[in-house]
Structures are given as structure tokens and as C-alpha cells.
Amino acid sequence: MGERSTASSGGEEKAFTAAELGALAHLYRGEVYRSTIWRSRLDHTTNWAVVTTGLALSLTFAGPEASPLPLILVGLLVVVFLLFESRRYRYFNVWRARCRLMETDLFGPMLRGEDYGRDGKWNTLLAQDYIRPHFHISELRSIGRRLRKNYAYILTVQAVAYYGKLAIHPTPVTSWTEFVDRAAIGPLPGLVVVLAGLVFHGGWLAVALITLRIEKRHRGRHKLISIA
């Protein structure tokens, strides 16, 4: 394995020595460790969102006369957790991308007994990412990914629970006017509150779909895995 070679920046092929391959193995192990740590941090924020949503459900459905306001407030809190998690995901994606690049372009070919990266593309790309580190996805794309993976389900539960609360407590509604009247919060008319909720959830749905189209467009460029 130590006799295989990759292209240097000057076009000459340079073989990886046993020491260099050992260093790459340690580098890979370090990147896996960092990605694992940041992956656990993503789980923490998701857990916070789930727990607070569950608490709001308990308070709201504690009795027929309980207020639905906690579900509105928890919707805003879930968005805060989403923004926290999207930022953490951008860091996680850096370490994950480096691991995948080494897996697909170094260790994969090595295990198949093939030349790994004689063209010098993967190692040059990885070197530049270490020299000039940067996030590989935008904040908007990061928000979209976490929405589609986790937070869309949490926000859906919050929305269904809120409108369900209005529909059944303290008694089942018999008309649209009664439903809207129940949604009123202090000086805010019920219609305003209901429409604000629809706009709120419709906006996140639009973000999820728009960023999904952006993801598909980026994946269609046949770039090396993850980075760029």
C-alpha cells in the first residue's frame, strides 16, 4: 500500500510513505471523533425541542379550561432550538465532509487494491480545506436540512395539537366563528392569531422545500463528496 502514489501540486507522482499513511489514519480518527462530538450536540438541541414541546402539550391538555398559549410559545422556542442546531450542524458538516472524502477517495480505493487519488484531486481539496477552513453549506441550507430531518415533525405536532385544542376544548366547536373566537389572545383577534399560525408554519414549509431544491441542484454538479 505504501507504494501507491498521488499527484503532487507540481504534477509529479509522490508515493505515500508508511509514516504518512499512519498520519492519515490518525487524522481520519481525529475527524471521526470531532464529528461524533458535534453529532451528539445536535441530538441535545433536538432533545430540548422534544421535551419542551411535550411539556407544553401536558400544560395545554391538562384540562378543558387550560389555555392553548403554551403551544404558541413553545413553537417560538422550537424555532430558537432550530437556529441553534443549524449553526451546530454547519460545524458538524465540516468534520463529516472530511471523513467522507477520506473514506471515498483514500480508504475505499485502498481496500479495493486500486490506485487512490493519482490525479491529486482529493488530497489537494482536503489540504485546502485545512489551510483555509470554511463552512461547506450556508445557514439557510443548514436550517432546511434540520427541518426536513427533525424539526418539521416537531412543528407539525405543535400545530396539530394547537388547532386540535381549539377544536375540542372546552367543548367541540360547532362553527368556524366559534373556532376563531377561541384563538383570541388578549387584545389580538382570533382571526389574526389563526392566520399568523398558518403563515408561521407555511413559511417553514417553504424553507424546507426551497432548500431541498437547492440541495438537489448542488448534488447534481458531480463534485467530490461533501466538500465544496
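That was protein one. Protein two is written in the same sequence-then-structure order:
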Amino acid sequence: MNANSVTHTGLSSCSGEFLDAKLESCFRSSVQAQHIRQLRIALFVTAGLFLVMGLFDYLLLGLSETFLRLVVIRGVVALAFLVLAVALARRPQLLASDIPLNAACLLLITSLILIVPLRTEIIGAQLTPAVAATLALYLFIPNRIPWAFACCVYLSAGVLLAFYSTGLVELQGMVGATLALLLANVIGLLASLRLNRLQREQFTSLLAERETNQRLQLEIKERQRLEEELRYLAQTDGLTGLNNRRWFFELAERELKRSRRDGTQLGFCMIDLDKFKAINDKMGHTAGDKILATVAALCREELRDTDIIGRYGGEEFVIALPESGPADTYKVVERLRARIEQYQFPKEFVDRNLTVTVGMAQVAPGETTLAPVLARADQALYVGKRRGRNIVIVDAHCSKEAVLN
């Protein structure tokens, strides 16, 4: 249920219920379990009181015909209330049905009226159960103000008529009984209306709070999504999907510190696409962009998850290989070079096999920054360019034996 619709939905002045039928149904569904529990307690208590009052009937009347009549009346009411309490537990939908509850209420009221002439010797005490029943009908049977009002009018009229028919209540007593029943009806009706309004106002507030929480959760998720997107944009090259230059250096710096702390080796290589400017000039920048994205994808396929690759700039890529000695680093980049050379690019992208030149270097003992090893890898790359391209050149600091082992 939308919080905006709840805010603008009024309550009936007669019953205190929502004017919106769907909202009223939603409210009743939400409190059904609570109201059934409340009603079942009321039914059990009433049945118990009726049975207990049978003892007082016996003490007052003895084992007489009148007592037996009272036993039948009280027994029928108690049994009906117990059956209804059990039925509500098994079939909660009975709460929304008028017939079972109305039948129980009418049975209770009729029994109270019939008891009056059977116990004329304590006629004054009969007013208390009638007042208590009036308040109970208003307060303990939920969402039934119109029916409760009708039942209470029947109860009040029936009890007063029974008092009058006995001839044992004087005019002053009749006036007092009428005022007492009238006051009970007014108090019960106002209290029931107030309770209905308070429950529905709380329900309205709860729905509005839930709607606010849902909006907040959506805003939080949207903010998290935007933060992730911003983080991705801040760390990723938009064309290739690789780490951008700034983020690559941050990750590589972490690996450098880890390698120094753990005493592990760390390899770097610089990759440059051969004669890429000519491809751009001849085939167009769109074809060039697709080639760069394809090469980036090929690199990711050949590298380990722990390896770090970034776009260094233009058609140049840089790779950091943690825990990789010269031999392992060389095997990886040579395999990568061969993979790119053998890859069949679409003819609309490039009219020849694409090749790359790779410069490779290892972090030397005592180096605390990336600048020296990247400079050596870059220098090895340029050596490869001068030697004809499509080759892996190993930095001179890496011995031939170390690479071949």
C-alpha cells in the first residue's frame, strides 16, 4: 500500500474505519492474529464466568426447577462460546464473518435477558452483568461498531423490559438502570471509536514508515551503485576495460611492497602494438579502438587472476606479474605475443596479422619504487622496436640463464 494514498485516506466518523475499502482490508489482515487472540480470550473468560455463576445459582436456589433452567441457559452459552473460540483458532477467516459472531452475541444477550425474571430475588444485581456485557461488546469484539451498537441497544432494551415486567423495580430504580445502561453505551461507543481510530492511525504511520524505509533503502542502493560506478570509472580504462594508468600504479605499488616484505620476485613488461598508427590512419579510429579492446581481452585470457594489467597510454599496455621469476615472466609474455600474432582479426579492422613488441624486466633487490624497473622494461621495448618488432626483449639485468631456466 502506497504511503501517499494512506496519507490522504480518511477515517469514517461513525465507525473509525478507513473509507478506502482496500486499505481497511489491508489493516484487518495485518491485525487479524492479534484480534483473534483477543476475541478468543474474551470468549473463554465469558464462558468461564457463566459456568462459575452456576455455583451461585445453586447456593441461592438449590436444586430447583429454576436452577435447572439457569443451568441449561448458562451451559448453552458457555458451550457456544467455547465452540466459537476453538473454531476461530482453526478457521481465522470466521473473524470477518458476521453470522458466527452475531449469533454468539445474540445468544449472550438473550441469556442475560432471560436470566432476569428467573432470579427476581436479586434483581438489583442483574444490572451489573448487563453493563459489563455492554462494555465488552464494544471493546472486545474488534471492527464491529455498527453491530455492537445494535446488539447493545437490544441488550439495554431487553434488560429494562425484563426489569419492568417483573414489577419488582420501582420507577427510581428504572431511571437509575436506564441511566447506567445509557452511560455504558456512551462510554463503550466512544472508547471503541477512539480505539479504532488509534489503531488505524498507528497502522497509517507504520505504512508511511515502511514506505520511507523502502525509499531510503532504494536511495542507499542507488548511492552504492553510483559509488561503484564512479569507482569503476576512476579505476578503469573506458575503452579496454583494463585498469587505467593511475589505478595500475596503485596496485603495482602494493605488489612491490608485498614482494619486498615477503621476499618474492616481481616481473614487469611493457607491450606495444606494432605499427598501430598506420592501422589507425588506414582503417580508421573505430577499427583501432576495436583492436585495442580485442588485444586487452586476449591479454586477460593469458594472464593469471593475480597478475595486474593496465593501459599505459595509447596502444601501450603494462603488466605486473607477482611471484614470477624471469623464466616464468618470459614464458607468459612470449605466449601472449604468439597468441596475438596468431589471432585472426576481421579484415575490416586490419589487413595483416597484428604483432606486438614486449619489453620485460624484473624488480632488482633493493628497489623501492616502480620507476627503475618500468624504465628498464620500457628501454627493452625500444630495443625490440629497433630489432624489427614482434619480439620479447629481456632487460639486461636478467641473465640469459635465469630466463632459460
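Residues 75 and 226 are 70 Å apart (CA to CA). Keep this in mind for the problem set.
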